[in-house]
Amino acid sequence: MEYIYLAAASFCFSIQFIFNKLFESRSNGTYNAGMWSSLATAVCMLVYLLPAGGFTFAVSASALTCSLLYTASSLLCSGVTILALHRGKIAVVTTYMLLGGLVLPFLWGIIAYGEALTATKAIGVAVLMLSMASSLVFDMRANTAAGTNGKSGGLLFHFYCFILFLTNGIVSIATTQSQKAADAVSSDDFLLLCEVEIAAAAALILLILGILKMKNGDRRGIRTAFLEIARDRRPMTGKLFCILLLSCALYAVCNGLGNIFSLNCAKTMDASIQFPVISAVVIVLGALFGWLIFHEKIEKKDWLGLGLAAVGIVFFVI
User: Fold this and answer.
1) Of 224 and 210, more confident
2) Measured between alpha carbons, how far is 214 from 310 in angstroms, rounded to an integer?
3) What is the DSSP letter of 184?
4) Helical residues (DSSP H) of 181-298, grouped into ranges
5) What is the pTM of this model?
6) What is the four-CA torsion angle of 139, 142, 147, 148, rounded to 10 degrees?
7) What is the C-alpha to C-alpha distance for residues 33 and 75, in angstroms, rounded to an integer?
8) Which residues, 6 or more positions from 21, have their beta carbon under 8 angstroms from its beta carbon?
9) C-alpha angle 244/263/187, rounded to 5°?
10) CA separation for the pair 127, 317 (Å, rounded)
11) Residues 6 or more apart from 19 whose CB is under 8 A from it?
12) Among 101, 175, 165, 178, which residue's Cα sits nearest to residue 132?
């Protein structure tokens, strides 16, 4: 049964990036848009989770700690994902995110749970890190050749991607830790707790950003923060609002199902097996979707990074 959960989680996490990209393509690509997406996604998930849980959920000390870590990392990851997708390809963004969700939980498994560190897994980590470094080196050389001294948007894109590497890895660690703790609550209760926190925190961040805009002379600062997130400063119409909300709702469905399947898988499967398989499937499908749906050209440097990532993941599961 655990392998069915694993396959389902991998598929759902792959599909979610389509809707993330659809949202970004119609937004202004700012952190405000990322927080709007986080708020809308959390609300959509709560519409299902709260009634399903009888409008109550269990809380324990470990669940609260893990959920706060999950929420903080998830919010940063969601906001920066929009920034990164605004500057680069789905294939690269998914690679960085999923490698973070692979390497960091693996290292945490060794430290916290005493999982074995074999020679093949050590080689896998080294190759995975090389896959990220290769893309960065190519961009640095291209920028230097163009006379930009490495200060172009391409390098900023890699900085965003590195943040995604860290934050998605921490989300995965929090997910695993929440289910392995002695006082663990059910996966549904943990996910519900996280979504409540994400919705509240995202709304608070947008409110603070709106107040700051008002202090800087924008009388409509709060409205601007919450609603003026359309691409090219277009006004928020009813049609656009529905498109953005639908993108978030579909993302919520895929992400929610993916998390539920992943949490159930984490109860019995080692993190050193679970996350490599999920990462491999999502990286491959992410590149495929970017090419088929959004016509993103996969260049030689991208193929090199994807190839090294695939080799590194193979070493993980040997």
Assistant:
1) 210
2) 48
3) P
4) 187-215, 221-227, 238-266, 271-292
5) 0.83
6) -20
7) 12
8) 85, 90, 290, 293, 294
9) 90
10) 14
11) 247, 248, 250, 251, 254
12) 165
Residue type, 201: A
Which is nearest to 290 in space by CA: 131, 99, 93?
93
Sequence-distant (≥ 6) Cβ neighbours of residue 270 within 8 angstroms: 109, 115
Residue type, position 209, single letter: L
Closest C-alpha among 243, 115, 84, 251 to residue 180: 115
Where are the alpha helices (H) located in the chain, listed in sequence order?
Answer: 2-26, 31-52, 61-85, 90-113, 119-145, 153-180, 187-215, 221-227, 238-266, 271-292, 300-317
Coil/strand/helix, residue 220: coil
The tokens for 191 are: 């996910």
Q: Are 160 and 233 in contact (CB under 8 A)?
A: no
Note the pLDDT tens digit of each residue in 132-183: 787 777 776 665 554 444 444 477 888 999 999 999 999 989 988 888 888 8
Closest CA to 261 of 206, 183, 179, 181: 179
CB 131 within 8 A of CB 95: yes
How far apart (Å, rounded) are the C-alpha atoms in residues 308 and 52? 42
Half-sphere exposure of 196 (CA within 13 A, CB side): 16
Q: What is the pLDDT of residues 10-64, one digit of tens each?
A: 889 888 888 988 998 888 888 889 999 999 999 998 998 888 878 888 899 999 9
pLDDT of residue 309: 85
| Alpha carbons 302 and 281: distance in angstroms, whole number | 17
Q: Which residues pair with 161 in a beta bridge?
A: none
Q: Using alpha carbons, select from 75, 88, 76 the residue that is nearest to residue 21.
A: 88
204: number of Cβ within 10 Å = 12
- What letter represents residue 115's amino acid? E
